[in-house]
């Protein structure tokens, strides 16, 4: 399922994140997720600060559910970018530890890595932060089922 010698097509991966992950998944589109970077087994996305995504109106910080969705989407993208061929996936488990509150009126960035692909399950880790990845807002560990029923977002209209 993975071939480390196969060259990674960053341009295609960025196109997939920009079109398929954002536009073909309505929740991701509603959150206005933005693709920032991609590499083999790696994805970086941004969740912009918007008033309608605020969870604490007094402090004006993004809702934890929106940050969770960002980390889930980014982790799923990292799984796709770790594989040589696109297969449908589904989140089995996503454990998130919130380490501190987000800062008022600031976008959140997620960086996710797929570090292991088994026969049926892929494993990810991710962090959410503002500008500095060494000062995370949250960390996540995820498992994704591989080869689920249905089409991948890549086949439904991604690059």
Entry summary:
By secondary structure, this protein is an alpha+beta fold. The chain has helices spanning 10-23, 26-31, 64-82, and strands spanning 34-39, 42-47, 54-56, 61-62, 89-98, 108-117, 121-129, 138-146. Helices cover 25% and strands 35% of the residues.
Description:
- The chain has a single domain, classed as Hotdog Thioesterase (Thiol Ester Dehydrase, Chain A, Roll), CATH 3.10.129.
- Helix content is 25%, strand content 35%.
- The protein has helices at 10-23, 26-31, 64-82; strands at 34-39, 42-47, 54-56, 61-62, 89-98, 108-117, 121-129, 138-146.
- The strands form two sheets. Strands 1-2-6-7-8-5 form a six-stranded antiparallel sheet. Strands 3-4 form a two-stranded antiparallel ribbon.
- The mean pLDDT is 88.
Keyword list:
six-stranded antiparallel beta sheet, Thiol Ester Dehydrase, Chain A, two-stranded antiparallel ribbon, alpha+beta, 159 residues, 25% helix
């Amino acid at each position: 399922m993975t071939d480390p010698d196969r060259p990674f097509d960053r341009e295609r991966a960025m196109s997939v994140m920009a079109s398929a992950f954002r536009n073909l998944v309505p929740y991701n589109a509603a959150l206005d997720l933005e693709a920032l970077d991609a590499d083999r087994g790696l994805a970086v996305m941004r969740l912009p600060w918007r008033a309608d995504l605020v969870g604490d109106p007094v402090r004006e910080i993004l809702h934890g559910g929106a940050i969770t969705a960002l980390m889930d989407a980014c982790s799923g993208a990292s799984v796709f970018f770790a594989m040589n061929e696109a297969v449908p996936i589904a989140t089995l488990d996503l454990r998130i530890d919130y380490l501190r509150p987000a800062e008022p009126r600031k976008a959140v960035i997620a960086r996710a890595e797929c570090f292991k692909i088994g026969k049926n399950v892929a494993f990810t880790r991710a962090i959410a932060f503002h500008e500095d990845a060494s000062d995370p807002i949250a960390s996540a560990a995820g498992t994704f089922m591989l080869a689920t029923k249905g089409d991948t977002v890549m086949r439904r209209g991604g690059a």
